[in-house]
Write a structure and sequence with these properties.
Shape: globular
Helix content: over 70%
Strand content: under 5%
Largest sheet: none
Distance between the termini: 20 Å
Radius of gyration: 19 Å
Structural class: mainly alpha
Length: 203
């Protein structure tokens, strides 16, 4: 139940962090034929996505501890940051895979997902059957807290695997650079907020 709670809590915020910018970025970059200009615009979209990740997840993290049922639950209160990091990494991986779509290399996204699941399942098997085979989560203890952390860490490890693989592959096509262009961010917030808000509410 606690695992499901942290999963759904940050999943709802991820829609706001996305702000419908993935679709907008893909559409805008596809229309740009000049590679230098495409690269320049992509760096700005990266900056916008990482700006939204920072602001939205920091807000979500603070709000979570204002919810009594979260703040008073040791499993959630202690390890909420692990799930926040996973969700943030997952959102980052989403914008990073855009070049793979632009250059018809989506097979690498599938490979990244497969590798991520293998890492997660491998860690889960190790944690559950080797390190913590008989943990009783109904009775709070240091062991149960660490075991719960290990389970959440397996998900974070899968997200990092996906992100790093995609980043490694697309460096062959576009250089990784985050451009925090204030004017660009302000413009996208102004023009995209109806779509971003609708996407968040529908999620």
């Amino acid at each position: 139940g606690d695992y499901s709670t942290v999963l759904k809590y940050f999943a709802s915020w991820s829609a706001l962090a996305d702000f419908w910018i993935y679709v907008v970025a893909l559409n805008a970059l596809w229309k740009i034929k000049d590679k230098t200009e495409k690269l320049k615009q992509y760096h700005k979209f990266l900056g916008f996505r990482f700006f939204m990740i920072f602001v939205v997840y920091l807000t979500a993290f603070v709000i979570a501890y204002l919810i009594p049922s979260y703040a008073n639950n040791p499993y959630i209160a202690h390890w909420l940051i692990i799930w926040m990091l996973f969700s943030a990494v997952f959102m980052a991986a989403g914008i990073v895979q855009i070049p793979l779509q632009l250059f018809w290399q989506m097979k690498h996204v599938s490979i990244a997902l497969i590798l991520a699941r293998i890492v997660q399942l491998g860690l889960l098997v190790f944690f559950i059957f080797v390190l913590f085979p008989n943990v009783d989560f109904n009775h709070l203890s240091l062991i149960s807290l660490i075991a719960f952390l290990a389970i959440l860490f397996s998900v974070l490890a899968s997200g990092l695997t996906q992100f790093l693989y995609v980043l490694f592959v697309w460096n062959k096509f576009l250089k990784f650079k985050i451009d925090f262009d204030r004017k660009f961010i302000k413009e996208k917030l102004k023009t995209n907020w109806p779509y971003g808000l609708s996407y968040f509410l529908s999620s």
